[in-house]
Design a protein that fits this description.
- The chain has one domain: Nucleotidyltransferase, domain 5.
- Helix content is 23%, strand content 35%.
- It has 3 helices and 5 strands, in the order E-E-E-H-E-H-E-H.
- Strands 3-2-1-4-5 form a 5-stranded mixed β-sheet.
- It is globular and about 35 Å long.
Length: 93
């Protein structure tokens, strides 16, 4: 059975990029989600799922919201996120 290992969320002004990484190393999906549909998208994950986001002012708000919903949230400092970018930076990469 494939289970979710990490949900990565790239926060933007009105459209968020949500990437779901499975335990076996595969990417289940990588989608753009509007601000109004983000909570509905996250509610589909099991409680206790790890959600990772780049630390910024709005990620603290979303982090508190997701923690209240029962998820584990990790905010990653920007200097550590930069190491994961292999090519031109955009939300999908």
């Amino acid at each position: 059975m494939n289970t979710i290992r990490v949900v990565g969320i790239d926060i933007a002004k009105s459209v968020f990029q949500v990437c779901v990484w499975m335990v076996d190393g595969s990417i289940a999906y990588n989608k753009k989600i509007s601000r109004s549909k983000l909570l509905d998208c996250v509610r589909h994950f099991e409680p206790g799922t790890l959600i990772a986001m780049e630390a910024c002012s709005t990620s603290h708000f979303w982090g508190r919201t997701f923690r209240a919903m029962g998820y584990n949230v990790r905010l990653i400092p920007a200097q550590h996120v930069k190491a994961f970018v292999r090519s031109q930076k955009n939300d999908a990469n």
